[in-house]
Amino acid sequence: MSRFFGKKFLLKPLTTPGPGLYTAFNMILTGIFSGLVTVFGLLLAGAIVYRLAKRKIRAFVVDFVTSPSPQTPSPFAALVSLIAVTFGSEIAGSLKAVFMGVQSVDAKNERSALAASVISGNSMLGAIVSGFPAVGKAMKKNPGMAALADLVLGRVLSGKGQSTGGPTSPASPASKFDRF
Q1: Domain map (residue ranges) of the chain
Q2: Digit-coded pLDDT (tens) for 150-162
Q3: Residue 180 CB: number of other CB atoms within 10 A?
Q4: 143-158 and 133-141 helices cross at what angle (nearest 10)?
Q5: Which of the 8 DSSP states describes residue 174?
Q6: Are 106 and 98 in contact (CB under 8 A)?
Q7: Residues 118, 160, 155: CA angle, nearest 5 degrees
Q8: Does residue 75 register a pLDDT over 50?
Q9: 165 within 8 A of 176, measured Cβ to Cβ
Q10: Nearest to 176 by CA among 92, 114, 93
Q11: What is the spatial distance between Cα 35 and Cα 131, in angstroms, rounded to a whole number?
């Protein structure tokens, strides 16, 4: 204990060969002074950069937000308008696609149901569709073709020009195909 806190330990660095007490003290003061000069220099440079950047940023914001004349909008207003138009058109396009998709699915299901009712109303047309699936698929995609096939087969089979439940009959499901 006396070795670390005794007089021998405190005096030993002063009595060893090397820099004297004055030189060691001078080195410490030089280090502290150079550190303080560096810190204050950096603070001064930071303050100068802050003031210049603050002026440039303020000038940019003021020029960006204020309009050059009463007739022309400011660049900020033009940017906001452009963003609003872009978002609005994207939302409208998305909603249109959703609603058109729903309508498309409904229309496709309605056409398939109508074509199926026309096909089921004519036994000969049903036999053709069951024998040739590609014909059935085409008739489901285009219900007017199913009504036309019903009309043609009705003329061929009856010889009168239409089948008993033909497309011109008001009770026929094929009469619904007039709008397609």
Answers
A1: 2-65, 76-179
A2: 777 766 666 554 4
A3: 13
A4: 120
A5: G
A6: no
A7: 45
A8: yes
A9: no
A10: 114
A11: 97
